[in-house]
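My convention is simple: the sequence line spells out the residues, with the fold written below as integer tokens. I include a record here:
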Amino acid sequence: MELAGITDYDIIMGKIQILLANGDFYKVREIIDQLEKDSKQEDLPTDVKQISIIDLNIDSRAVEAMNEYGLLIVDDLYRCSPEELLSLKFVGPKAIKQVRLALAKLGVEHD
């Protein structure tokens, strides 16, 4: 998007410069993390994004916890880091492995 020669990039960089000048490094990290998540979102084919995580071969208690957290489809799961998933009740290393395997079957690599 561009308005009078100002792009989204310009706006984001302006925000980052202000935050850095104020020493708010945590907010800068949040912006960078969100940009990384947004860029990852474009990597998935549309048909894969919309698959329900209930249809994946993942422990039912882990799926229920993910659903309560708002993770309903593959796209939601893909944009969530393993660390974020591990913070959920009933989601442990076994569930993370199941998530990785399920996504790999769909041709998706999850970091």
About this structure: The mean pLDDT is 83. The helical segments are 8-21, 25-41, 46-49, 60-69, 74-78, 82-86, 93-105. The CA atoms of residues 1 and 60 lie 42 Å apart. The first helix runs from residue 8 to 21.
